[in-house]
Structures are given as structure tokens and as C-alpha cells.
Write the C-alpha cells for this entry.
Amino acid sequence: MKLAERMSRIGVETAFEVLVRARGLEAQGRSIIHLEIGEPDFDTPKHIIEAAKKALDEGWTHYGPTQGQPELREAIASYICRTRGVRVGPEHVCVVPGGKPIIFFPILALVEPGDEVIYPNPGFPIYESMVNFVGAKPVPIPLVEERGFSFDLDMLRDKLSDKTKLLILNSPHNPTGGLIPADDIRTIADLVRDRDLIVLSDEIYSRIYYGEAPLSITSLPGMLEKTIILDGFSKTYAMTGWRMGYGVMPTWLVDAVNKLMVNSNSCTASFTQRAGIAALNGPQDDVRKMVTEFQRRRDAFCSALNQIPGFRCPVPSGAFYVFPNITGTGWQSKPLADALLDQAGVAALSGTAFGAYGEGYLRFSIANSLENLMAAADRIGQFLSKAQAARR
Ligand SMILES: Cc1ncc(COP(=O)(O)O)c(C=O)c1O
């Protein structure tokens, strides 16, 4: 039996493939330092786990409303009002199993074959995968290292067309750790405000930043009405395995997302939603502690990578990734990522796992202990100096 043609157009996420390969090597007795996967290495805060246990004991084990429980949607709406400075209500919120469905559902609901979708490259691979899947035209915009991995705004202006249906922003950004400066967000809003398009603002890393807070495009005049905020619990509260995220969007889009939800999931797990309320309304100290620890690791790891000949590692402003430029080593990204895994025992991702413009870079997740990060930098340095000597 042949698969449907559309399956030839859907992509994958390399991080999961590299994780499987790395685990395979470990099973053979090799020591691997895992810097490939994008999830906090912290435990979900205790009070959130307690809230889930209590919910199970109380019988939150049944179907719930497709859009999400009203109390959770209330909590999310008030969290978004507080953190983005906008006015939204529970009617704008769709609770879904993870942040990813807020890429999948809106693209399915909005984008038709022939439409154009602009998105950052390198960028989260699911954007491009979904654009191809629905038969639309991917319009990648390269990010500029010298601009802290923000867009080239002139290029963005040039790429906008009457066919542009969706513009995807992601700040703080996976894989570069870049944050779109507030002035750039204002310029982008000015460029798209009067256009017939929707912005998908992927703000899943909104709480993980190390200096200036990211500005949500929704806070600018006229933008809330044409923007979908993607956010969730995975990164902020170290809840990747709970599968809970949400979108905040205009109500006409809520209806479409609900239809896709009822056709695919019925609803998000009920007891996890009770835990979500505890996460948003409870103490936030664990989030602050996690970000402080990421910052300590970021500083130490970037400076260790910058000691390696051929590496140039900008210090990221957010998320928990570092994205060094490795062109000075003479290696291409994918062969270097493969060699580091196979020969040096360091699992990292090639920049090209995030699109063609990721060539010349590697992505390291800093969701591992400082000790392991330092050991990884050591292994990389030693591997490259041996490889260099062998070439001579
Ligand atoms: C930029 C970006 N958006 C969305 C997601 C999806 O998050 P979730 O695990 O909640 O589906 C990720 C996860 O890695 C991400 O990096």
C-alpha cells in the first residue's frame, strides 16, 4: 500500500533522531554527553506535581471541554494580559497537548496551496515541515548573526507579497538563542499591520531570557487582532512530557482550532490542566532559579567554546541553546555534528537540522550540568586538535 502523496512532504525533528542514535551508542557502553534535546534538565516544580496528583485523586480523569477547562483558560488569559500587556479573555484561548499543535492546527486551518509563509531560517523545523505538508510555498528568511540572529528587515520587506498568508516569528529563538530586539518588532509590526495576513508568534521561550525581556508583537497597536500567540508549559515549567500548551488568538480562529482538536484529540488531558492552573497561579521561584542556572551555564559554556580554534560563539539572549559559528574549523556542520557524536561522545545538532541557512553552525542545548558542559567543550577541543593534526 502506498502512503498518501502528502506524506512525502512532511518533515521530522532531527533532535529526536540524534537522541536515538546517542542512546544506541550508550547501549554499546560509550560515554555520551547529551546536548541535543531541547528540554530543561530540571524536574517539574513540586507544587505542580502535587496539583496533578490531587487532581487524579479527585477524579479529573474524564473528557473535558475541547477548548480547555474554563478555569485554566481564565488563568492563561490573565497570565497573557499580565506578561504581554494586552487585553484577552478565556474565549481567545485554546488549550492543546503541547505547543506544537498551535503550529499544526492554525497552518491547517489557514494556509492553502499556493499561499506563502514567511519564517526564520534557521528555525524550528516544524514550521517548514507544515508549510510543505499543506502544499504552500515556504519563504525562509535567513537570520543574521551580526544582528543577534534577528531578521534582515530589508529582506523581510522584499519577501512580503500579496500571497503572504502567514508570518512566523519566534523570540526567544530556537536554535540560535537570539531575541528579536523591540525596535525590530516595531518595524515588523509596521510592515504587516495593514496587510491581509496573520502572524504566528511562537513565544514558547518567553520566560527564558537573560537581559531585556522579549517584546510580544501583540502589544503593538492593531496587532492583537491578527496574531496567534503560541506558548505553553513545556519549557517554562519543565513540563515537556506533560504535553500541554496553548494558543491565544482571535475568536474566529478559535472555532477552527476547536474543530481540528475535536477531530484529533477531543481534549487535552484533564488532570494535567489542573496542574497547569497551579503552574500559572502558584509560586514562580523555580522558573527564576532555572533561568539563573541557565545563565551561569551559558556564560561558562560560551566562553569555553570561544577558546576552541575555529569556533565563534555569540552569547545568546534567551532560550537554552548556544549556536556557535564553526566555519573557522573548516568543517561542514553535519559532518562535524556526526563526528562529534561518533568520535568525541558529544551529541549536538547540525545547524542544517534547522534549515539550509544553518550551515556553518552547531546547536548545543545547555540543559545539562555545568560539569558536563565543560567536559563537552573539552572533548570537542581535543577532537578538533587531533583531527587537525591528522590532516597535516
Ligand atoms: C520554537 C519552538 N516552538 C514550539 C515548540 C514545541 O513545544 P512543545 O514541546 O510544547 O510542543 C518547541 C519545542 O522544542 C520549540 O523549540
